[in-house]
Amino acid sequence: MEARIILVRHGETEANRLGCFAASEDIALTDTGREQAEELALKIQTQFRPHKVISSAFHRARQTAVIIARQLGLPVEVIPGIQERDFGCLRGEPYERMGGIMRKDNLYDPERRWLWAPEGGESLEEVRLRAIGALEKIQTCYPQEEVVVVSHGAVMESVVAHLANNWKTACVPPNCGMVLVESGSLQKPGCFITSST
Q1: CATH code, domain with 29
Q2: Per residue in 117-146, is it b (16+ CB within 10 Å) or e — as a string?
Q3: 48 lies in some domain
Q4: pLDDT tens figures, 148-197
Q5: For residue 14, what are the domain limits?
Q6: Which pTM value belongs to this model?
Q7: What is the distance between the alpha carbons of residues 188 and 106, in angstroms, rounded to a whole number?
């Protein structure tokens, strides 16, 4: 079996449906989100042979992880470092609000958007640093296995930017989208990655 991380975004939440940043860590999946997770669980079961399911501590990720783990007959482990970006003053706000706030901030550089942080929140670069650290620990603990890691949109965007060594083409995947992180690729930015939805 080839060692890799199957990095998954959680299923749809009401905030996702409304086009808003989540106001809380405790927001739950919608019925659609649960269906997405069920479909993804079957896809993972068909295409991979995971050894473990790991999740962010946020409720929406844990719900998604439990659905996947149940289908695979595996336990779920919750770890720090892969939780969603802290959006600070944007929590609960519509996605469009971010653009207006960024443009009014003298510290915002459109050529280096990943370095900008909303008031009280994190930059994408800060998310990248903590997420890559967490994923490297997972690869160290499971050097020969496939592991499902359920996380969040900004985390996945940051990981893709790291792997591709290119922030400009990185984007947030859809709910229950996945990215395959091959063994050793975290230490070699710019290497090939496989993305699937």
Answers
A1: 3.40.50.1240
A2: bbeebbbbbbbbebbbebbeebbeebeebb
A3: yes
A4: 999 999 999 999 999 999 998 899 999 999 999 988 888 765 544 555 65
A5: 4-85+123-196
A6: 0.94
A7: 34
